[in-house]
Design a protein that fits this description.
It contains 14 helices and 4 strands. It is mostly helical. Strands 1-2 form a two-stranded antiparallel ribbon. Strands 3-4 form a two-stranded antiparallel ribbon. α1 crosses α8.
């Protein structure tokens, strides 16, 4: 396998890891985002129990994506990290608070409200920071001489703030549809109402971001509106519209798994759209996957480990989801 092929394969693996993190940790971050809107302690307990078996395993993909980026695309890591220190550090601190709160809220009654606030606040901040990071990457990173050439606050723009809020709403949609699939009774009905609202707002924000993005960079504009790829400008909105239709049909027809699967499809299509805009850049607008890749020997050596490790992660993740399939029993769970 040639060095360019190895870099391409690793770009696909990193992209897969990031997407796996977004959709898997996205719905349990969504649970935390929705937490303040559910006032009954019993409902909050069921919400946390619905993700208790899988939430920490979901974050494995973040470690794999971040660690893989450092090992396989060191130039991209060296450029992206200085440009995005603030939102990335905010995300990591928020995830720490969220994880601690998940464990401690069950151990106290008197201070439970503090840990509930930590769980909700950590989820919201982590989701917002991830959205800001995405927006900053999309708008581009200034590079000169293979090093970051921007300022401390280049990541903070109207577009990145917008994508931060958009991802919070999107994760809330994933969380609400997860609850629709995993719960019953009044909690289930409340989750359906939140899914309807979050779905509408998410679609509106996706539309706004789709219209905004091409004007951030001439390459994006050219890729979406000229040449042989112009058909994507018609096909992608139609596919998103079809997934949205399936989302709402599932909510109205009582098909509890369909809304969650449809929300995942919407996220996948949005992620695919970002990939189409980016390729072959890993740190737009000037660092490609081949520029950023480590030596071919390192790529080949690490690929051997990935071929063993990634199927193992997929295997135990699939097994955990299979074992804990079905509705959550309010009388049982994580205590």
């Amino acid at each position: 396998m040639s060095p360019s092929d190895l870099a391409f394969v690793w770009a696909g693996l990193i992209a897969f890891s990031v997407f796996a993190y977004v959709v898997m940790d996205g719905f349990d971050l969504g649970i935390g985002i929705l937490f303040p809107f559910f006032k009954r302690d019993e409902d909050r307990g069921v919400m946390m129990n619905s993700i208790a078996p899988v939430w920490d395993g979901n974050e494995t993909w973040l470690v794999l994506g971040g660690g893989g980026l450092m090992a396989v695309f060191p130039l991209a890591y060296a450029v992206i990290m200085p440009a995005l220190y603030a939102p990335i550090i905010a995300m990591l601190i928020a995830l720490i608070f969220r994880g601690v709160a998940f464990e401690f809220r069950w151990r106290t009654k008197r201070a439970q409200f503090l840990w509930d606030g930590g769980f909700a606040g950590g989820s919201i901040v982590a989701a917002f920071a991830q959205g800001v990071t995405l927006g900053a990457l999309v708008q581009g990173i200034r590079v000169e001489g293979r090093a970051y050439a921007g300022g401390w606050w280049d990541w903070l723009t109207p577009f990145s703030v917008f994508t931060g809020f958009a991802l919070v709403v999107g994760y809330a949609l994933l969380g609400a549809t997860w609850l629709v699939m995993k719960t019953s009774g009044e909690l289930h009905e409340q989750a359906k109402r939140f899914a309807l609202i979050a779905g509408g707002v998410s679609l509106a924000m996706i539309g706004m971001a789709s219209l905004w993005t091409p004007f951030l960079n001439a390459i994006y504009l050219e890729r979406w509106f000229t040449g042989p790829t112009v058909w994507l400008s018609v096909a992608m909105p139609m596919l998103v519209g079809g997934a949205a239709l399936m989302l709402y049909r599932g909510l109205y027809n009582g098909r509890d798994a369909q809304p969650f699967l449809s929300a995942l499809a919407i996220f996948f299509l949005c992620y695919l759209g970002i990939g189409i805009s980016f390729y072959p850049m890993i740190a737009p607008p000037s660092v490609s996957i081949w520029d950023a890749a480590a030596p071919a020997e390192s790529l080949a050596f690490l690929l051997v480990g990935a071929v063993v490790l990634i199927p193992m992660i997929l295997g135990y993740t699939a097994y955990a989801y299979w074992v804990f399939r079905g509705k959550v029993d309010p009388a049982e769970g994580y205590h």
